[in-house]
Amino acid sequence: MAQAPKSRARAKSKSPPPRPPVLEWIMAALGAAVILLTLTLLLKDAKGEETPPQLTAHVVEARPLADGWAAEVEVVNRGDETAARARVALMGSEAETDYVPGHGKARLTLIVPADPAATLPVVKGWSEP
Fold first, then answer.
1. Which residues in the chain show pLDDT less than 70?
2. Which of 56, 64, 71, 60 is closest to 110 using CA atoms?
3. Are 63 and 94 within 8 A, CB to CB?
């Protein structure tokens, strides 16, 4: 009498559990990638001290003007830390950048009396931001 329901229950219990949807696997992989990226950035930041700013400058372009030359100067920071108010001099003219980020660049334009092609700009100083 009661044997028929038991056989149906057994048949249902033998079927394998349903597989998770593909979207669930994709979201799990994305979450794991975000966690690994976060840990990598934290470990990189905690590795040690940063190097101070190491500024160099060079003339990128020079254009003649009516009363001199416009020299576009690029300031390059090879250090880890940011340099604020970097002062650059070229042929008697000086200019100052707002800041040069670590491993970054900044450009400024100086008005000079002659063609600056053979002259190197000089970084006179900077301050901490």
1. 1-13
2. 71
3. no
Backbone angles phi, psi at 39, to 5 degrees: -65, -40
Residue 6's contacts (CB-CB under 8 Å, 6 or more residues apart) are none
Radius of gyration for the alpha carbons in the chain, expressed in angstroms and rounded: 32
Q: Is 64 exposed, middle or buried (0-12, 13-18, 19+ CB in 10 A)?
A: exposed
Strands 99-100 and 105-112: unpaired
Residue with the two structure tokens 């100083």: 125
Distance CA 38, CA 89 (A): 42
Please give the single-letter amino acid code of residue 85: R
The model carries a pTM of 0.65
pLDDT reported for residue 17: 79
DSSP 104: -
